[in-house]
Write a structure and sequence with these properties.
By secondary structure, the chain is mostly helical. The chain contains four helices and no strands.
Length: about 140
């Protein structure tokens, strides 16, 4: 009985550590935001984009998203999902490009030449640290 409790306690402790890791929480937030973003894009496509496109591609006076082939093969709905995906991919591409451009600007700003006094101080500090480590290692060897 005691072993079973320890195993269960260890299992729950391990699960809690796993579930509360930053990566898992970040992934959960990304999924939730992605779902909401998908709904926004679907609404944008259905309510804003498609009213302009439907008259151009309508078949026999009905919405192209309602086109079915044979018994229940909803080809129009499938094509609508492809349009949604393309728009989501395009928006993500634009956002990622903007973030990469912003990162490049930060890197360029970080690559600017530093103050000569600051560089000299950093070199001196590094040299003193290495000297201290060398002296400490010699004192422990003697």
């Amino acid at each position: 009985m005691v072993r079973a409790r320890r195993r269960a306690g260890g299992f729950f402790r391990d699960f809690r550590e796993f579930a509360l890791k930053g990566n898992v929480v970040d992934l959960a937030i990304a999924v939730i935001i992605g779902t909401a973003f998908g709904k926004i894009v679907s609404s944008f496509v259905e309510d804003v984009v498609m009213p302009f496109i439907n008259p151009l591609v309508s078949v026999a006076g009905k919405d192209w998203r309602t086109i079915t082939i044979g018994p229940g093969i909803a080809i129009g709905k499938f094509l609508g999902s492809i349009v949604d995906f393309i728009i989501i991919a395009l928006v993500l591409f634009v956002v990622i490009q903007a973030l990469q451009k912003f990162k490049r600007q930060e890197e360029v700003a970080a690559d600017l030449p530093l103050d000569a006094n600051l560089v000299a101080q950093e070199r001196l500090t590094g040299a003193l640290d290495r000297l201290t480590q060398t002296l400490e290692s010699r004192n422990t060897q003697v």
